[in-house]
Input
Amino acid sequence: MHEIAKLILEHADTLFERDEAIRKALYLGMPLNEIESYLDWLETVQKSPPKKADRPPPA
Output
């Protein structure tokens, strides 16, 4: 169930969507401290520069 909750959290883009995703994750049994840790991790990953393989090829 936590994997489903993580997917829901990962795809929440707006503040409203994130609020709903947190509620759903809690409903699915994911502890709040795990939700917070996962959201922190997501934020860190999204801010990191893309790897060389993730960049589009030069034109």
In short: The mean pLDDT is 87.
